[in-house]
Specification:
The complex is a heterodimer of chains A (140) and B (268). Chain A is an all-alpha fold. Chain A has seven helices and no strands. Chain A is 60% helix and 0% strand. The relative contact order of chain A is 0.13. Helix content of chain B is 44%, strand content 21%. The radius of gyration of chain B is 22 Å and the shape is globular. The chains are: A mainly alpha (140), B alpha+beta (268).
Chain lengths: 140, 268
């Protein structure tokens, strides 16, 4: 290995230990925490209680969808959408590292990921379409 | 991806077939544990199919878009996770009976299904691990609040037996796991998804297993309430246990990490 290669390899090795959230992501993290407090935590109890009132197990109670859509719309209005897509025009262009901090917070609250369009398995599927889909496939 | 008839952890096994007939692919086969497919809002699926049985083993599969309302898509039932079907999202058992979709629904190209998986599964896996760290934090918070505020045998439960050490170990392990997950995310940023795969497999092999244990210990400190409908812990446990299979069982990820470790010494 040439010396320049080994020095760039050791730079990468060192970079792998730079694990701080970027300054740019901090306001977003604060906005997500606020979104969870204002728009997610208040709906969790009612959302789950509605499970008992459903007539068909394999559908949503209309009020459940209303609660979810309400929280999603508030997220969109605050510019919180699609964090998971790194370096994409559609999402926030967050790095995986910055998203890691945010997703850890989302994991603590049921429904939080979904209100930001960040739930599994949807994120992976959307990323596939974004990266390899044709325009017609994305449209579908 | 996952099929009931063969071990889908080795994705080269996947055998739901897609055969070109004029301008359409004709799909036949069976899948299970297709998460989210029970949701009435789910309108389209990305399906792993075998299009090229005569190609090299890693070039036989492709990924294809199948709208859920295509004739022949038969959703049989919701698979259960420890007795829960997670309706309406569900983990569905689906049969494809001569399902016809346009030729252009194939993603990227014939035989390129594995290539797409390298894009698809890295991020998905690490997202699971990130959220799991959050769940572990939640479980530890519940463990502490419960065990420090209820007394039995004249002491707070946290001081009985080795409970304080259980709390300590949970904190120590969460701190370690969090750093490993952050580093795997960083590896994806600086090395790319493909080169970062050993880092990602390492955390996917470690995190769900260890978080399961932490949730289990939180349950134990709650007494019977921990396994009941009064606590979120029971649901958290089954979700986390399920995650030891989702996006590849632990063993497949250990295979990736173990092989990479042996390759460092050039012995095989």
């Amino acid at each position: 290995m040439s010396s320049s290669n080994s020095s760039s390899a050791s730079n990468i090795e060192a970079d792998l230990f730079n694990l701080a959230m970027s300054d740019a992501a901090q306001p977003l993290m604060d906005a997500v925490t606020k979104h969870i407090r204002d728009n997610v935590e208040p709906i969790i109890e009612e959302f789950h209680a509605l499970e008992k009132e459903k007539t068909d197990r394999w559908s949503w109670h209309p009020r459940q969808l209303e609660l979810l859509e309400g929280a999603k719309n508030k997220a969109k209005e605050s510019g919180l959408w699609n964090f998971f897509l790194p370096d994409s025009e559609l999402g926030e262009g967050l790095t995986n590292l910055d998203y890691a901090y945010i997703a850890t917070e989302l994991g603590k609250y049921p429904l939080a990921s979904e209100t930001l369009n960040c739930s599994a398995p949807d994120t992976g599927n959307m990323e596939v379409l974004e990266r390899v889909g044709t325009e017609a496939q994305k449209e579908q | 991806m996952t099929e009931p008839g063969l071990p889908s952890s080795d994705a080269k096994n996947i055998s739901t077939s897609a055969v070109l007939d004029g301008d359409e692919w004709v799909i036949n086969g069976e899948k299970f544990y297709i998460s989210g497919a029970g949701d009435p809002r789910c309108k389209i699926m990305i399906t792993m199919v075998k299009t090229s049985p005569d190609a090299a083993p890693s070039k036989q599969q492709s990924q294809i878009l199948v709208p859920t309302d295509t004739p022949g898509v038969e959703i049989l039932e919701g698979m259960q996770v420890f007795g829960h079907d997670h309706a309406p999202r569900g983990h569905m058992h689906i049969r494809f009976n001569n399902v016809r979709v346009p030729k252009d629904n194939l993603l990227l190209g014939e035989g390129r299904g594995f290539e797409i998986s390298q894009v698809r599964l890295g991020p998905g896996r690490i997202h699971h691990c990130m959220r799991s760290i959050g769940k572990a934090e939640k479980a530890l918070e519940l463990m502490v609040k419960r065990s420090a505020t209820r007394e039995a045998f004249g002491k707070p439960i946290a001081k009985l037996g080795k409970n304080l050490e259980v709390i300590s170990r949970a904190r120590i392990e969460i701190n370690g796991m969090k750093l490993a997950v952050l580093q795997a995310a960083k590896a994806m940023d600086v090395l790319g998804n493909k080169e970062a795969r050993v880092y990602v497999s390492a955390v996917k092999a470690m995190v769900p297993e260890k978080v399961c244990l932490i949730i289990d210990q939180a349950i134990q400190m709650h007494g019977a309430t921990g396994i009941s409908q009064w606590s979120p812990l029971a649901q958290m446990y089954t979700d986390m246990r399920h995650l030891r299979f989702a996006d590849g069982p632990d063993e497949v990820h250990h295979m990736v990490v173990g092989r990479a470790e042996i390759q460092r010494y050039d012995l095989w």
